[in-house]
Amino acid sequence: MKNIHINRQAPKDGLAGLKENWKTDLTSGFLVFLIALPLCLGIAMASGFPPIGGILTAIIGGLVVSPLMGSRLSIKGPAAGLIAIAVAAVADLGQGDAALGYKLTLAVVVVAGLIQVAFALLKLGRFVDFFPTSAVHGMLAAIGIIIIAKQVPVMLGATPESKNPIALLMEIPAMLGRLNPEIAFIGGLSLLILFGLPLIKISWVKKIPAPMLVLLVAIPLGSLFDLTHEHKYLFLDHDYIVGPKFLVTLPGNFLDGITFPDFSQVFSLTSFKYIIMFALVGSLESLLTVKAIDGLDPYKRKSDTNRDLLAVGAGNTLAGLVGGLPMIAEVVRSSANVGNGAKTRWANFFHGGFLLIFVAFFPNLIHQIPLSALAAMLIFTGFRLASPKLFKDTFRIGKEQLAVFLATIIVTLAEDLLVGIAAGIVLEAAIYLFSGVSFKNLFKSNFLQERVGNSIYLKAKNAAVFTNYLGFKKQIEAVPAGQDIVLDFTQADLVDHTFMEQIHHFKHDYEARGGSVHLMGLDRLTPVSSHALSARKATRKTVTA
């Protein structure tokens, strides 16, 4: 079946692609819109932005960015992965004034978008492959934990006393004791739906977008509990207050939701910190998503990562200018887009169009959405980012990978994302230095290329690790399609997990385009675990310098 997909003629692009595939792309765009609407609202509020900010970003990501982007099937919009940065930026820049912090953060988003454009023009999209896999997974898991910690109080209708993610997690038992029963019921039932729906095996039920089902349940419950009017109710001899503050708030007029940035502090050290974080983490997450979605594309089309980064940067610049969140290529919506049968960029365009129509003509319906339901969706997203299975899978790859993974999580929770990912990189490099790899060989790509008969040999010497993978990638990408490539590791002393994973993906992609890739010499190296892509090293005690 796989070869059938590979050999099938790829869909046309541009206006020809619209004419050819408008039905499937329109359908997928609508289904993605159903998922995106509640998530955009929830991500915005969790980020310290007004709910309309998330919708504005998704509209720009669809209507404006689609023609520019270098990927065919990714969906551009706000993502849970940037919540931790955004909410911290609003708090730090505003110093207690949320409205000011929001406007100052918009200026940060604008500059970060311009930096992403510069990254793309300098063709730096390839640097996504520099980051070690376990550190990236650790960063995403830490983001998931932060989301859970921040959204549990919203789902329960309780006011937290702490702000730090670790302290918030420790406070959860106390918050359970002071929850608002009606709000917690809506949030708890929403969470039950999100976790329970995938377990139902009935085919037509599985086709229902879980976020939309949550809204179909939560909105009537909000009406039943009369959340539109502030009032008290008695439950187990305790009085509780509910009202509109537990519902989404949108401006009556769509244009009233546009907010302009405040550039007065854009050159401060605090702004500079968050500019770098948005630019680096946003670019990394977006490019990783594009890479993952390319793997799901049944036509095996390769995205232009630099063009895609250029489009995202331009989109972020525009979003920041009008009051929107930063955007990336978002993995959940992009995966759903592929699953719904989308063929071209027009699916992303249609998803943005449906959002614009809905928020422009049905703002009162959006106002009926309980915040606790949106919080439940974000907690579910956070759980998937930091699922126990991820911890288990990382341990299976190797103890050193688990150490990098955990270090990234812990430092991120204690400090921030930028320090956390840096800690993971430094720790993994330190592990290799301690194993005997010289500092020179840590960064030098020791691959000798030669042609032997009809085959192109790339022979590795010393260490093949994440820090020198980019040099290898430059060599391997220069090989024309359709060749017979032999990757020879008989003279290598260490091949790390990230390198193993990268060559695994390269082998899959290159062979999909008609070539062949053979791995040679890995059997003389000892894997550190039973995992097929675990690090492999020479059995002698030290690695050749």
Can you describe this structure in just a few lines?
The protein has helices at 2-7, 14-46, 51-64, 83-94, 98-121, 133-156, 165-177, 181-196, 203-206, 210-224, 269-296, 305-322, 331-339, 346-361, 363-366, 371-385, 388-397, 399-414, 417-434, 439-443, 469-477, 497-512, and strands spanning 75-77, 231-235, 238-242, 328-330, 447-452, 455-464, 484-495, 516-520, 526-527, 536-537. It is an alpha+beta fold and 545 residues long.
Could you give the topology of this structure?
Elements: H1 2-7, H2 14-46, H3 51-64, E1 75-77, H4 83-94, H5 98-121, H6 133-156, H7 165-177, H8 181-196, H9 203-206, H10 210-224, E2 231-235, E3 238-242, H11 269-296, H12 305-322, E4 328-330, H13 331-339, H14 346-361, H15 363-366, H16 371-385, H17 388-397, H18 399-414, H19 417-434, H20 439-443, E5 447-452, E6 455-464, H21 469-477, E7 484-495, H22 497-512, E8 516-520, E9 526-527, E10 536-537
Helix pairs in contact: 2-3, 2-10, 2-13, 2-14, 2-16, 3-12, 3-14, 4-5, 4-11, 5-11, 5-12, 6-7, 6-16, 6-18, 6-19, 8-10, 8-16, 11-12, 11-13, 17-18, 18-19
Give a structural overview.
The structure is a single chain. This protein has 545 residues and is an alpha+beta fold. It contains 22 helices and 10 strands. The strands form 3 sheets. Strands 5, 6, 7, 8, 9 and 10 form a 6-stranded mixed beta sheet that branches. A two-stranded antiparallel sheet has the order 1-4. A hairpin with an 8-residue loop joins β9 (526-527) and β10. α8 runs antiparallel to α10 (210-224) and α11 runs parallel beside α13 (331-339). It is globular and about 80 Å long.
